[in-house]
Write a structure and sequence with these properties.
Blueprint (H helix, E strand, L loop, with lengths): L11 H16 L12 H10 L6 E6 L3 E6 L11
Antiparallel strand pairs: 1-2
Helix pairs in contact: 1-2
């Protein structure tokens, strides 16, 4: 991918959205469950923070343009829960 024009950090809002998407996939059994002692939401957050899924985030830029950023290139250490 091209160099990131926006922040190289995953925002808490992006984390919430991605965790929700991954949680829906876990509910639909489209991905394997990691740990049955954790809730689906906790598992989804762990998957996103550990970058275990290949997701591309579309960030809107001024001037009706956008930037696609891979989750694997974003920093997530500041979001550890």
């Amino acid at each position: 991918m091209y160099p990131v024009q926006t922040s190289s950090y995953l925002t808490r809002f992006e984390l919430a959205r991605l965790a929700g998407i991954v949680e829906l996939q876990l509910q639909d059994n489209k991905t394997s469950v990691i740990d049955s002692s954790k809730t689906l939401h906790d598992q989804a957050v762990d998957i996103v923070l550990n970058k275990e899924t290949d997701i591309v985030i579309r960030r809107i830029l001024p001037g009706d343009s956008y930037e696609d950023v891979s989750l694997k290139t974003l920093e997530t250490s500041h979001l550890k829960i």
